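Dear colleagues,

As part of the handover before I leave the project, I'm documenting each prediction I ran so the next person doesn't have to rerun anything. This entry is a single chain, and its sequence is reproduced below.
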Amino acid sequence: MTTERPVPGQPAPALKLDLIIGAEWELSEQNPDAFTMIVFYRGLHCPICKSFLSDLRGRYDAFLSKGVEIINVSMDTHEKATEAHEDWGLDPIPMGYALTESQARDWGLYLSKARTDAEPETFSEPGLALVKPDGTLYMAEVSSAPFLRPDLELLLSMIDMIREKDYPPRGTLAA
């Protein structure tokens, strides 16, 4: 099966999710100064996700100061997403849950089946997307394995350059 990936410079796929706090979050309603960062993580079962999201939490205020609003998203249940949010110390980053297989495919995420009882039956592999305030996808990083992740420090250091130089999205030639 061929999965089409979203193309930078084009409208980002729709995304509407429930948050663990009982509210609803919709990408089309976001209005960041620079970008909405959507961080797709594998789930509570993933120790690398814990480390990556904890690192992101440590940089959260720096991203906000550069106009980047963040949401963490997984296919986990409300209970598991809440446990991850609390146990991993991710407050106040919004935490979305119950991403569907269809939504994951819309975002070009790789899907995996459980290898152990600790893993959900199906879950997405990690990804990260930056969406501009106008709803277009600026960039996407998608991994087929749990241990390939973007360098958050490098990304953070590039936000000002992207904005100051009006650096265009790359990878805009559709397959």
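DSSP finds four helices and nine strands in the chain. The CA atoms of residues 8 and 137 lie 5 Å apart.

All the best with the project,
I.
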